[in-house]
Design goal:
Blueprint: E1 12-18, E2 24-30, E3 37-43, E4 47-49, E5 55-57, H1 60-70, H2 78-94, E6 99-101, H3 102-116, H4 118-128, H5 134-156
Parallel strand pairs: 4-6
Antiparallel strand pairs: 1-2, 2-3, 4-5
Length: 157
Amino acid sequence: MHCPFCRYPDSRVMDSRTSEDGSSIRRRRQCPECQARFSTTETSSLVVQKRSGVIEPFSRDKIVNGVRKACQGRPVSDSDLAVLAQKVEESVRASGAAQIEAHSVGLAILEPLRQLDEVAFMRFASVYQSWNTLEDFEAAIQVLKVDRENQASQLAQ
């Protein structure tokens, strides 16, 4: 890291802190040449490879916009969608890969969306997983019912 004051090609890290959302690291540095102190913010890059082969930077906004369509008419706020996008990003970054397939991002959306709103989950999953028959919907509804019963029995214990 070059010193912004004297352009010396090195610096010493004095302190490091993770941002509140965990997406970046703030480092306090000192130049060994001029003794000036300065801060840097470091973020890791994450890119998404689409089916077409196109690679683009990961974007929470794209997740929010895609899920917003499934949540249309549902009691889901913009802040709920922002939290969902943050959970998805944390899940994707936890894989440790710098490049991830778009399909993996879609899979990472499903569980947080199911927890947020089951109807929105069904809408999103039906398009994302290309459900074609009534049986596809019935199978998904049956899984949701079993999950709900399991949660209720755990709470009762």
